[in-house]
Amino acid sequence: MTANRSDSAADGSDSDTDGSDDGAPAADEAVPVWLVERTYGDDELNLIILVYATEDGRRYHRRERALTSFTGPTRETTAGLRVPPDALGSVDDPATRERYAEEASRMARQHDPADSV
Prior knowledge:
Elements: E1 31-40, E2 47-53, E3 59-66, E4 80-83, E5 89-90, H1 94-110
Antiparallel strand pairs: 1-2, 1-4, 2-3, 3-5
């Protein structure tokens, strides 16, 4: 996978608009992504890593949260998000891309984006 920007860039404030038409969404167009992976960071104490991906599995968005931030109703993990294109990384590994596509499609079929999972 190619690394994506941190969560701080997820607001779209750091967008790159060069005017080229390469078929990718414009920087101000949010892209829907679905939760495909939730792991506990082995090398970081009390860190949960959430990976969201597009339904084709080609792009992903990663969020890291402290385990303690999962308490209470204000920090629910939702089934889906909408993120700016510049907050997405590329999934280069074909097996990972296929797995992400299958899981993102399953989540999209079974959940509304705002569902808590």
